[in-house]
Amino acid sequence: MRRYQQRMLSLILAVVMAAGIGLLPGVRAQAADPGTITSMAYFSAADGPVISKSGVGQASYGFVMPIFNGGAATWNQVSGDLGVKVKVAGNWVDIDSAAGYVYNQNWGHWSDGGFNGFWFTLSATTEIQLYSKANGVTLDYTLVFQNINTTTITSMTPTQGPEITAGFTGGAGFTYPIFNNDPATTYEAVADDLKVYVKPVNSNTWIDIDNNAASGWIYDSNFGQFTDGGGGYWFTVTESIHVKLESKTSSANLIYTITFNEPVRSSYTLTPYEGTTFTANESGAIGLPLPKIDGSAPIGSELGKFVYEISIDGQWVELSNSALSGFIYSGNGYNNMSDANQWGYWADYVYGLWFQPIQVDMQIRIGYPQNGQAGGSVGNNFVYYTFIGNPNAPRPDVTDQEDIEIGTPSNPAIDGMTLVWQDEFTGTQLDTSKWSYETGYYISDDPNSWGWGNAELEHYTDSEQNVFVQNGVLNIRALNEPKSFPQDPSRYAQYSSGKINTKDHFTFQYGRVDFRAKLPTGNGIWPALWMLPEDSVYGAWAASGEIDVMEAKGRLPGTTSGAVHFGGQWPVNRYLAGEYYFPEGQTFANDYHVYTLIWEEDNFKWYVDGKFFFKVTRDQWYSVAAPNNPNAPFDQPFYIIMNLAIGGHFDGGLAPSPSDIPATMQVDYIRVYNAGSTGGGGENPGPGQGSVIIGDAVRGLKKTGDDLLFYVNGATFADLHYKINNGGQMNVAMTSDGNGNYTYPVNNLQAGDTVEYFFTYNPGQGALDTPWQTYIHGVTQGVPAE
């Protein structure tokens, strides 16, 4: 079953999402954890109280979580207090006790792009009730089901088109045709008999685009379906195409033509699309349509040629130079966990830029090369804009994030942390019991993946010219050393460099990594410390996740960044990134600095020299492959990678100047710590590491230091109920690993603390409560964890 989309949107919005460009954003309120629900309201008119669906035998329903406590609480904050009931024979019954309902089979949670909700697969009209376990607040839903009998297609008559013109962003679509000359015959009735084919207008070959990503047509990326107005298909095109709908069982078919008119430019003069003064709204957001080029809106292939600048103290500064402009680029829309000024692209009928939060007045200008060529002279071909700020616009509060202690070059000890793996690079050569080399210029020998699929200009070697240890420091050095490869003998990688990783040597899941390094400068220089999963259990990159501890652009030595990548396989992946700005007088090149990532089960935090700069929480990431697992894809062991890349998309494909090469990244040490909160750490460690188990193979707790990790295995759901030192009872939903195993941490206990607890879980035959158990910290004995 296709995962429930956060909501089926209108055609235009679907096209916007397909274009992969961030929407004009808003701010969602964040609040301290209130624990309990005091009120619930439907998220929107489309999300209750009545949701009607039709289908063949069954239908899939979904709705966004309600608005909790008047908007002061998120679902993650009150999830432990939220229960679900279903009406059976006129009575409300907890869904885990109701016959026929199995979590993750015909109902469950979904998470998509920061939104959360419930989904259900039903074959009859059903009443659902969400309720507060603490105080009885309820919200009722009626999920109305209408059964449809299937049929085959004998004819199709267009309701839109069949001649359609795509907009400037390439977006186009059409509603479903009338099937069998009967407007009452719905798409669902004939869906199993309908195929979709596509071909460019100058081609003679039809392409079956169903589950055919290799063709370049990817569902929910550049084509898909919408439900508004009876539903239909949408496409994002870069050229004119034909679309054919065809019956599998008869000769009935219908051909549409989507025409994409690429503009012919006689000049590249810019003019405003609509006005030059924009006022920030209540959220501090401004949406600015890009200016017209030679009288018409720009198309996608022209976006990379624009120049964006902001006036800072009377000087024009590149918007992308975040250390000077004060703005960071957020490619997936506004990040409401960051207090930075942010900008990005949006797309509707035309392309534009969004900015948020604009609290003060400012000026920007947008330019375009006078010859229409990327990097060409802009001259005076600018349009100037004035922004009127909203001083009352909200800016996320990150003051609760404290700085951290770091070790010294000679002493890795940090209070409260256990060092589980390190390399101090004290020898005379790379320790190959800890590291492996990555070499070459292609991914899996695919000639289309040159430059590691990222248009990079370096090939990697295992030569000591590129990777060597000297005077207690690892050196990764890029040299001017052109080389071609059998995959494409005519293509040369201009530079050699080094890339090493700990795959098959060391992985960890949750913990802290410190990396002390001095980085090189120069155009196109791209040093990085990052991590990939040992096993890609959720699919190819970036569906199984990527964690960037540190990345830097050599031309901007005052800034480094951290990021996570997630979502689906390229190109439907997403990322969130934050940037650190060095204090005046410092750069990443003038001295060694310590780059730190703290990875916990529900969040990541980034630091430079112990100073916090960015956080991502699990309500911001998601996995297409495991929509009901809130921790996916970051619930697996990851290994460490270090490399020095040249060129590539990270900084716009810039190439070094001759004086920029050789370039060397110098690494003093890498250290991985375990705080003991959720296990992990060590050289492919087992679950032990000094832990003890109190319980059995099904349920219990694991003690590591002063931290407890409660667990339930082999269940369809699990809740933990506990109280400490006879305090208030806490009722929390345990976190699933997606394989029927659930955990929940309780940390930082003191000697003599008494924890009383019991579990509610469903082993597959119905929900049950265990007896109360008592654990006394420092007294209760267990058995060593294996």
UniProtKB/TrEMBL annotation:
CDD domains: GH16_laminarinase_like. Gene3D superfamilies: 2.60.120.200. InterPro entries: Beta-glucanase-like, CBM56, ConA-like_dom_sf, GH16_AS, Glycosyl_Hydrlase_16. Coiled coil: none annotated. Transmembrane segments: none annotated. SUPFAM superfamilies: Concanavalin A-like lectins/glucanases. Residues 687-777 form the CBM56 domain. It comes from the Bacteria. GO terms for biological process: carbohydrate metabolic process. One of its GO terms (molecular function) is hydrolase activity, hydrolyzing O-glycosyl compounds. Keywords: Glycosidase, Hydrolase, Signal. Residues 423-678 form the GH16 domain. Belongs to the glycosyl hydrolase 16 family. This is Glucan endo-1,3-beta-D-glucosidase. It comes from Paenibacillus antibioticophila.
